[in-house]
Amino acid sequence: MTRGFYIGRFQPYHQGHHRVVQDIAEEVDELVVGIGSADQSHSVRNPFTGGERIMMITKALADLDLVTYAVPLEDINRNAVWVSHVRSMSPNFDVAYSNNPLVVRLFEEAGIEVRGSPMFDREVLRGTEIRERMIASEDWSELVPDAVENVVAEVDGVERIRRVSDTDVEASPSD
Amino acid sequence: MTRGFYIGRFQPYHQGHHRVVQDIAEEVDELVVGIGSADQSHSVRNPFTGGERIMMITKALADLDLVTYAVPLEDINRNAVWVSHVRSMSPNFDVAYSNNPLVVRLFEEAGIEVRGSPMFDREVLRGTEIRERMIASEDWSELVPDAVENVVAEVDGVERIRRVSDTDVEASPSD
Amino acid sequence: MTRGFYIGRFQPYHQGHHRVVQDIAEEVDELVVGIGSADQSHSVRNPFTGGERIMMITKALADLDLVTYAVPLEDINRNAVWVSHVRSMSPNFDVAYSNNPLVVRLFEEAGIEVRGSPMFDREVLRGTEIRERMIASEDWSELVPDAVENVVAEVDGVERIRRVSDTDVEASPSD
Amino acid sequence: MTRGFYIGRFQPYHQGHHRVVQDIAEEVDELVVGIGSADQSHSVRNPFTGGERIMMITKALADLDLVTYAVPLEDINRNAVWVSHVRSMSPNFDVAYSNNPLVVRLFEEAGIEVRGSPMFDREVLRGTEIRERMIASEDWSELVPDAVENVVAEVDGVERIRRVSDTDVEASPSD
Amino acid sequence: MTRGFYIGRFQPYHQGHHRVVQDIAEEVDELVVGIGSADQSHSVRNPFTGGERIMMITKALADLDLVTYAVPLEDINRNAVWVSHVRSMSPNFDVAYSNNPLVVRLFEEAGIEVRGSPMFDREVLRGTEIRERMIASEDWSELVPDAVENVVAEVDGVERIRRVSDTDVEASPSD
Amino acid sequence: MTRGFYIGRFQPYHQGHHRVVQDIAEEVDELVVGIGSADQSHSVRNPFTGGERIMMITKALADLDLVTYAVPLEDINRNAVWVSHVRSMSPNFDVAYSNNPLVVRLFEEAGIEVRGSPMFDREVLRGTEIRERMIASEDWSELVPDAVENVVAEVDGVERIRRVSDTDVEASPSD
């Protein structure tokens, strides 16, 4: 039995992520999807809560023939303990999938196998692109699984990101 | 569609929890199982990591005809923001199940419906009882679902709790 | 102009505190009332939120001929920086009033003058006594200023402390 | 009885804030002034401590015919729990005043009424403008209430901001 | 070249610790002395600051023919990441010395060799014993190296622990 | 006996720092070298862990005729308590050496003597310059003491910084 680990912020979970997961599914029996910055929300960069992203991922993966776990990970802001943090919050895994050079390095220094995660249509299938389309009232729904579109609608997500986008990029509630 | 929320520490997830979940399954379409103190582990009171408990719960609930989410919740140590913390890390829910008077009060002050969760064979089906049996080398496996027994074996959990039980109750690594 | 500093948890603010403040009022022109453990609430030991305690104190001191500031102080859990924390969150003060030996020592090591705060009818005028009476449905209102009684009523405080008192003393929401 | 809530960083509290408060005073009986980023100080963006800002606001509002509370709020850096944090540290309020789109959104998602706070002479009456004038030794005192000018003098605030402005914008003590 | 790691709270560093270090010196070329709970001070259980304990250890080990490092370690309160925390704050080490069952288990789960640290005259050579003698004005100085006695004198340590011992055991500044 | 305090991030410790220390050695009997942002690592700006930097400094200063202490300091992100934090983690000191205007101001407000630390060949002897050379495979080793070159080699530091430099400047593991 092989269990893989795939990390992202998933703001939102989109077709690019989905194709990566489908590819990984060929190689592993079970997959942990780690949701980074799970404690961040209501900003242009991180519009959706950890719980909303758990819903997106669980719904989008329901039809896959693969045991999956959607695990929210709060930021810990100390690179040297990040791998331990991830391992303690996740079911055990044998291999990690990532293209983020920092993640790759951290896992490798901890002696964990890392494989590159192929990226698809990277020009368009990016969280930034989708969030910008939401703000600009352009079509974004084709870029995400149907289940994600439903979750965004349920939580009134487009209105939320549009509203907070009027705030200064670095703004916090006290500005 | 009704979604319920059920919280515990699940150290470990046992038959008492399982019967509660089976009962709740009669009333809701989906269930979020919130894993409290998910950041605590390797102590007599909290032997298993958040990730190990996610595995226990996901495996034990696999056969249930109910969409379930196992959501780890780090301690926040501020009762007044605890409900917001839970809601942001969990898929939306309509009703919470708990017998913990503090939890009931906090949810009620936040305007969330709470229902009591019936308890079964409370004398024996308690985490404390199971952990004490593990330490004393008495039989405990009948008190948990088979899936949980397997996870405990996979992570060498009985040896872990026995070892850390030699440490003073309040001990930390620096004692 | 002399400004004093008086610290407590004020769970709740009672006649014993009030007499201390009245005595201090003889010696200073302005008084900062520091509310300790301001981030703790909804427990038997700390039933009221920081905001509720600000209200109690501000209302109770309204008639005093003394400029007062009610300043909530979150716990910092590091004695060596506690004085700096207090000073940065409070208007400048010339003298601190306390009978807590730890507080006295910390202020003295920081070179701040400390004066003892006389205590009145210490058998009865204690937060513990008042909270126990609330839980036991005994009369407690004579032990607090009228303004405090009103705040407790407004926030349904007696019911809150009674409810959370059913929880284990050390319990947290995840128990 | 209506209680309002008005939030800002107040670095420093200036005539623009003061006119907003005077306007709000027409609509409410009591006003909570929430001091954001109360734990930040000694930087160009946040030169004054929480305690210094409490003094500015309390002194500037002393003559107003309005019960006011100046409440310092430490940053919590989790938008999803920010409203709970504010509510637990503040006396209860019925309506919040803000023009910050993120604040407006967060309060609205929590079901709290929000009203826009009119802004006055926004070109000049901004904290940034005042802080830049302090650094450049230009006249700034006409932009703040007299009480604020006194507090800045008492804490040697102009010298402080000038000195720390020599540090790189993002600098911390360890740079 | 072999580097060892030895952890304790060292409240204060005493002859029992010193003999352990002398024994370890036979087996390693360099030794890291990790100071646990370095952020705790001014309590009966942790009277001395991290910096004061660095001084005690550095002075007491000055004559030893062994390269030593005294490394303060702030508490992290998450057992599952504790080993990573220690490793990131310490020079690399090959073997850890400890008798604390929790520490032994945590290092072993991380794949690090652990050796027992022999204990000497455990009845008397304990931090608790020494701290109680300080409070009771009994002789304690024979139980610590001369260098430690000097540091305790320099920081007025006996008076400090006596004073804070009047506070309730669990007391914090806000009690 | 005079003890000095000198703070930096030392990413890495280089010849510029070393000459400052040699100069300070003329004025003091003992020197505390405070390692700022000790909890940060594995980024372009902070490639080395606190423990790795302790090694660099201890090894580089071994031949100096000066008692030195290398003290890691975790970030505390609250300027108003930073001096207390430093003092509690460091042996007592009489004078601080710094050119950082914020550090100078914070120490001065706390009543601690500060002396400027002369800088040498500032064009080249900067951490930024050295880190950029490491990334660009240019010669950097002449800019650091031999002991530091050895530590960088032992921890495979050049490969680490090169690898993480592919990550976006602001990237965290979850990007």
Task: Describe the fold and architecture.
The first copy, chain A, is α/β, with parallel strands linked by helices and 175 residues long. The first copy, chain A, has a single domain (3-165), classed as HUPs (Rossmann fold), CATH 3.40.50.620. Helices cover 39% and strands 14% of the residues of chain A. The first copy, chain A, is built from 7 helices and 5 strands. The first copy, chain A, has helices spanning 15-25, 50-60, 79-89, 101-109, 127-135, 146-154, 157-164; strands at residues 3-8, 30-35, 67-72, 95-97, 113-115. In chain A, strands 3-2-1-4-5 form a 5-stranded parallel β-sheet, with helices on both faces. In chain A, helix 2 packs antiparallel against helix 6 (146-154). The N and C termini of chain A lie far apart (51 Å).
- How would you write the strand order of the largest sheet of chain A? 3-2-1-4-5
Largest interface: A-B, 25 and 25 residues
Global morphology of chain A = globular
H/E topology pattern of chain A: EHEHEHEHEHHH
* Structure class of chain A: alpha/beta
Give the count of structural domains of chain A. 1
By CATH, the architecture of chain A is named: 3-Layer(aba) Sandwich
- Oligomeric category: homohexamer
Strand content of chain A: 5-15%
Low-confidence stretches of chain A: none
Q: Kindly state the mean pLDDT of chain A as a whole number? A: 93
Strand segment tally of chain A: 5
CATH class wording of chain A? Alpha Beta
How much is the radius of gyration of chain A in Å? 16 Å
Number of separate helices of chain A: 7
Distance between the termini of chain A: 51 Å
What CATH calls the topology of chain A is: Rossmann fold
The percentage helix of chain A is: 25-40%
Q: Determine the CATH superfamily of chain A.
A: HUPs
